[in-house]
């Protein structure tokens, strides 16, 4: 086990394209770190640089205190699990798992048997040890690939989208298994995914990448509650955060449907007439008829017409179209190139109680938890209402949890 430190890592491909831009990231010994971001953001490239499958253009890659930039993959003592399993078809499950141990030379057969057995126990592969990969299900093949990774004592496990070939139910199940296995072994883990559910549920911390740049590294909870910018705010959470145009009018803020005081966190940071984007997550709303007393004390009420509802069993989504007004629309259009398309949507998605009797094409009263709203500068994407002390508290909590686990 070892810590992984990345210092100003750059990857420039032969054609001059920079896939990874000045990324510095510290992964603690025993930590489960997720690399997440949309397709092409550079997460796989970064993982491949850790493992040594890709040259590093500049910067330092340090594993267990040693700079490994020039070290061959086999000398870095890491285990990698790929999306396509990469099993040997002619070998049994047992021999596939034993493979890295046989390469180590000098290990007694008895020792190999015991270690393969331990890995198979952990991954519930005991009944299948004599089978060939062709006779296994996708989930079982992925378990064999993981068995092969955990059978050796390594500095770190590296996972490249290991669950993306599996169906949704199996993915959910394997997620818990990976979590349990990582907790039990306490091995530093770096896990690449584009699936934000995996990112939120698996990792101690999540590093969000966009176009080769690191955006934020934080616990899932901090990313969700205190995103540094619009990109992170919009990428984490499903359905994504709503971005509503908000115009400053003196000490008030005018949004579609709503008018509220400029939040204290933004005071002094905004000017009269300024256009901002207000971020409110779908779960920051409720059908006003179903509010409990605690919620009624805070937030704001508004009336709106829903055009589509989706009933999910435990909740429902309601879609509310809105118009931003000509002037605001014009300003947003000018910013379009810098904004993510999410920000230019003209519908609000709200998540409300399954008990709601709300009907399509009817006006209804809603409640918005405006105290949890974030305000973004549409020019820079910066979250101007991020609560640094709340964020620091969440980071501290995460660190304590990791320390407890590693003790
Ligand atoms: P995905 O989820 O689609 O795998 P990713 O975030 O893992 O995406 P990478 O595979 O790391 O992205 O690629 C990052 C960027 O680098 C992409 O824009 C890709 O087109 C580019 N890229 C990858 N390999 C090369 C190469 N050999 N030469 C030039 N550009 C490359």
TrEMBL record:
SUPFAM superfamilies: MOP-like, P-loop containing nucleoside triphosphate hydrolases. InterPro entries: AAA+_ATPase, ABC_transporter-like_ATP-bd, ABC_transporter-like_CS, ABC_transpr_MalK-like, ABC_transpr_MalK/UgpC-like, Mo/tungstate-bd_C_term_dom, OB_MalK-like, P-loop_NTPase. It comes from the Bacteria. Gene3D superfamilies: 2.40.50.100, P-loop containing nucleotide triphosphate hydrolases. GO terms for biological process: carbohydrate transport. GO terms for cellular component: ATP-binding cassette (ABC) transporter complex, substrate-binding subunit-containing. Keywords: ATP-binding, Cell membrane, Membrane, Nucleotide-binding, Translocase, Transport. Pfam families: ABC_tran, OB_MalK. The keyword Transport applies. Residues 4-236 form the ABC transporter domain. GO terms for molecular function: ABC-type transporter activity; ATP binding; ATP hydrolysis activity. This is Carbohydrate ABC transporter ATP-binding protein (CUT1 family).
């Amino acid at each position: 086990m070892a810590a992984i430190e990345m210092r100003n890592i750059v990857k420039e491909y032969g054609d001059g394209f920079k896939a990874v831009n000045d990324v510095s990231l510290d992964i603690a010994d025993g930590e489960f770190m997720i690399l997440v971001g949309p397709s092409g953001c550079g997460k796989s490239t970064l993982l491949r640089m850790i493992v040594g499958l890709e040259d590093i253009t500049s910067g330092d890659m340090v594993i267990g205190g040693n700079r490994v930039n020039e070290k061959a993959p086999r000398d870095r003592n890491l285990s990698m699990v790929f999306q396509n399993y990469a099993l040997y078809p002619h070998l049994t499950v047992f021999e596939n798992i034993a493979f890295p141990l046989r390469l180590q030379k000098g290990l007694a057969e008895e020792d190999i048997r015991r270690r393969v057995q331990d890995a198979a126990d952990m991954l519930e592969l005991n009944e299948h040890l004599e089978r060939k990969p062709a006779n296994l299900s996708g989930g079982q093949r992925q378990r064999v690939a993981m068995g092969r990774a955990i059978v050796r004592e390594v500095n770190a496990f590296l996972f490249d989208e290991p669950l993306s070939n599996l169906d949704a139910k199996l993915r959910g199940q394997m997620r818990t298994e990976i979590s349990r296995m990582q907790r039990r072994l306490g091995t530093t883990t770096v896990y690449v995914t584009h699936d934000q559910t995996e990112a939120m549920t698996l990792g101690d911390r999540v590093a969000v990448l966009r176009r080769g740049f690191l955006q934020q590294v934080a616990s899932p909870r901090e990313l969700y509650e205190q995103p540094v910018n619009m990109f992170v705010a919009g990428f984490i959470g499903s359905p994504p955060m709503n971005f509503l145009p908000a115009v400053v009018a003196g000490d008030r803020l005018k949004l579609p449907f709503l008018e509220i005081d400029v939040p204290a966190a933004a005071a002094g940071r905004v000017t009269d007439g300024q256009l901002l984007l207000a971020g409110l997550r779908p779960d920051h709303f409720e059908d006003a008829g179903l509010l409990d007393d605690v919620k009624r004390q805070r937030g704001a009420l508004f009336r709106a017409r829903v055009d589509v509802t989706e009933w999910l069993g435990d909740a429902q989504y309601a879609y509310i179209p809105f118009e931003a007004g000509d002037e605001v629309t014009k300003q947003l259009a000018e910013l379009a190139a810098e904004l993510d398309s999410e920000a230019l949507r003209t519908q609000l998605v709200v998540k409300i109680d399954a008990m709601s009797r709300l009907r399509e094409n009817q006006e209804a009263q809603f409640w918005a938890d405006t105290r949890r709203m974030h305000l973004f500068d549409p020019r820079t994407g910066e979250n101007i209402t991020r609560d640094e002390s709340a964020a620091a508290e969440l980071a501290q909590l995460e660190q304590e949890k990791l320390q407890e686990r590693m003790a």
